[in-house]
């Protein structure tokens, strides 16, 4: 990847940052992955991954059996946490329809000799991790306080009353609802005229009914 491409894909890096990466010979380790919902990317422990276009769906698994599902949008990413903790986190990245993900050699970049550059990277990593953590806290706080039905409706309402997704399975994963339970909720709410689901699109129809739910 040349200087121009790096500057375009990572506008948060200044000229000195890019020169530092070029000096360390890391430009060849910045890789663009073009993903669809049929593709699976297995992130490497020493890399970070940033979504540069479209949306990505992330499945994360811990050694003790916990499972998380997060939707990443443009300029959000994963992989930074593995730099700070020893516990293994296994990730699977997939596109939602189509997306572009930038693979960054984060561990090697942190071994550069420029303290200023290292501090700059740490700041960016902590910012990205904070965004993901806040997103997960909001999701799980809502999950605790709502029934599955209420949680689904709140999810759609907070996204403008409609939502397009890649598959029912992906949406169920994202909401941490069992697929069969999710399908029963959709069928029940559709029969009552609360919402409509057509292929990979769902939309709220009756906001008064939602208030009662």
TrEMBL record:
InterPro entries: cNMP-bd_dom_sf (IPR018490), RmlC-like_jellyroll (IPR014710), WH_DNA-bd_sf (IPR036390). SUPFAM superfamilies: cAMP-binding domain-like, Winged helix' DNA-binding domain. This is Uncharacterized protein. It comes from Propionigenium maris DSM 9537.
């Amino acid at each position: 990847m040349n200087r121009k491409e790096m500057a375009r894909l990572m506008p948060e890096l200044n000229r000195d940052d890019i020169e530092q990466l070029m000096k360390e010979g890391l430009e060849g380790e910045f890789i663009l992955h073009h993903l669809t919902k049929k593709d699976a990317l297995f992130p490497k422990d020493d890399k970070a991954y940033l979504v540069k276009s479209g949306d990505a769906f992330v499945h994360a698994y811990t050694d003790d059996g916990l499972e998380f599902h997060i939707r990443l949008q443009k300029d959000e990413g994963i992989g930074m946490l593995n730099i700070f903790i020893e516990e293994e986190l296994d990730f699977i990245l997939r596109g939602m329809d189509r997306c572009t993900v930038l693979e960054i050699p984060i561990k090697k970049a942190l071994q550069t000799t420029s303290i200023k550059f290292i501090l700059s990277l740490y700041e960016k990593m902590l910012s990205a991790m904070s965004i993901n953590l806040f997103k997960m806290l909001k999701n799980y706080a809502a999950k605790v306080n709502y029934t599955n039905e209420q949680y689904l409706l709140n999810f759609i309402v907070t996204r403008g009353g409609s939502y397009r997704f890649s598959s029912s399975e992906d949406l169920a994963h994202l909401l941490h609802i069992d697929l069969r339970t999710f399908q029963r909720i959709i069928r029940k709410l559709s029969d009552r005229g609360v919402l409509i689901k057509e292929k990979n699109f769902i939309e709220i129809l009756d906001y008064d009914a939602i208030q009662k739910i």
